[in-house]
Automatic annotation (TrEMBL):
This is HTH tetR-type domain-containing protein. Keywords: DNA-binding. PANTHER family: HTH-TYPE TRANSCRIPTIONAL REGULATOR PKSA, HTH-TYPE TRANSCRIPTIONAL REGULATOR RUTR. Residues 14-74 form the HTH tetR-type domain. The keyword Nucleotide-binding does not apply. It comes from the Bacteria. Gene3D superfamilies: Tetracycline Repressor, domain 2. InterPro entries: Homeodomain-like_sf, HTH-type_TetR-like_transc_reg, HTH_TetR. Residues 37-56 bind DNA. One of its GO terms (molecular function) is transcription cis-regulatory region binding. It comes from Kitasatospora phosalacinea.
C-alpha cells in the first residue's frame, strides 16, 4: 500500500487531488492552458504521471475541476460578506471590498487565467457561466441603486470595469482598503441621480 501523509486514505486522496489542482493553476497562470498536461502537472505537484490518472482521467477533466475550484472560494467569501446585508449601497460596498481582499490574496489568478486561456469550448462556457453568477449580486445591487432604468446593462458593465481596474491595482501592490475607498467613492457618485447629490 502506498505511503500516505494523512489520517485516512480518503484525506490523503483529497490532499493529493488538491495538490494537483494547485499545480495545474500554477502551470496555467505561468504557461497557459496548453501546458496543463498530466506530465507537467504531476511534476509540479511532485507526483508521478501515472499517479495523475488516479485522480483525473485527462488534462481536460483537470481543467474542468480547476474551473469549478477557481470560483468556489470567491463565491463563498462573497456569500458570507453579503449574508446579512440588504441595503443595495451596502451590498455594493461589501462586494467590492471582498473582491479586493480576494485580489490581494491572489484568489482571482486562476479565474483570470482561465478567462484568457484557449480552453475547450465546454470549459470556456462554464467559466463564463460561473463568472456571470459570481457577479450577479453586484449587478443586482447596481440595478436596485439605479432603479432598473438609465441603461442598466451598460451601467453594470461600467461598474464591473471599475471593479476590475481596482482589482488590477491591488494585484500590482496597491493597498486594498485605499483602493476600495476610492473606487467606491467614484461608484457611489456615479450611481447617485444628479438631483440627489449633495
Amino acid at each position: 500500500m502506498p505511503k500516505i501523509n494523512a489520517a485516512t486514505v480518503a484525506e490523503h486522496r483529497a490532499q493529493q487531488r488538491a495538490a494537483l489542482i494547485r499545480a495545474a493553476v500554477d502551470v496555467l497562470v505561468d504557461q497557459g492552458a496548453a501546458a496543463v498536461t498530466p506530465a507537467a502537472v504531476g511534476a509540479r505537484a511532485g507526483l508521478a504521471r501515472s499517479s495523475f490518472y488516479q485522480y483525473f482521467p485527462s488534462a481536460a477533466a483537470l481543467l474542468a475541476a480547476v474551473v469549478e475550484e477557481a470560483f468556489t472560494a470567491a463565491d463563498t467569501a462573497t456569500a458570507e460578506a453579503l449574508a446579512d446585508v440588504h441595503d443595495p449601497a451596502a451590498r455594493l460596498d461589501a462586494f467590492v471590498r471582498t473582491e479586493l481582499l480576494l485580489a490581494a490574496r491572489g484568489a482571482h489568478r486562476p479565474a483570470k487565467a482561465l478567462l484568457q486561456a484557449d480552453l475547450p469550448p465546454e470549459c470556456l462556457a462554464r467559466v463564463h457561466e460561473l463568472h456571470h453568477r459570481h457577479h450577479a449580486p453586484l449587478q443586482a445591487a447596481v440595478a436596485e441603486l439605479t432603479g432598473g432604468v438609465d441603461a442598466p446593462e451598460l451601467t453594470a458593465q461600467l461598474v464591473g470595469g471599475t471593479v476590475q481596474a481596482a482589482m488590477t491595482a491591488v494585484e500590482h501592490g496597491a493597498d486594498p482598503t485605499r483602493v476600495a475607498d476610492r473606487a467606491l467613492a467614484l461608484l457611489h457618485h456615479g450611481l447617485t441621480p444628479p438631483d440627489e447629490r449633495a
